[in-house]
Amino acid sequence: MAEPEHTPDGRFVIINxxxxxxxxxxxxxxxxxxxxxxLMAARRDVGAALRAEDAEAEREARARVQLAKVALGERGxxxxxxxxxxxxxxxxxxxxxxxxxxx
Length: 103
What we know:
Oligomer: single chain
Distance between the termini: 31 Å
Helix content: 55-70%
Order of helices and strands: EEEHHH
Mean pLDDT: 95
Strand order of the largest sheet: 1-2-3
């Protein structure tokens, strides 16, 4: 899969003409891959909950999507406004919270 187009400052990706916040480039590759994997699992769970018409499961899955998106830097305080320590803390805490949901 081709990399999406980025804005010149690298803060956003352009997909189908729409601008989306880019993932924090400072996240280590293995951590970023794990967070993306957890994000995709949560998205699949949202779909399954919708098909099953299970409102509680949907809320839980959407909360996991939010945790993953924040940990990746795609939501919440923009990663370019955070210090290196704050960025590291954001993705570590997000990963820990998502791992607790997986347990």
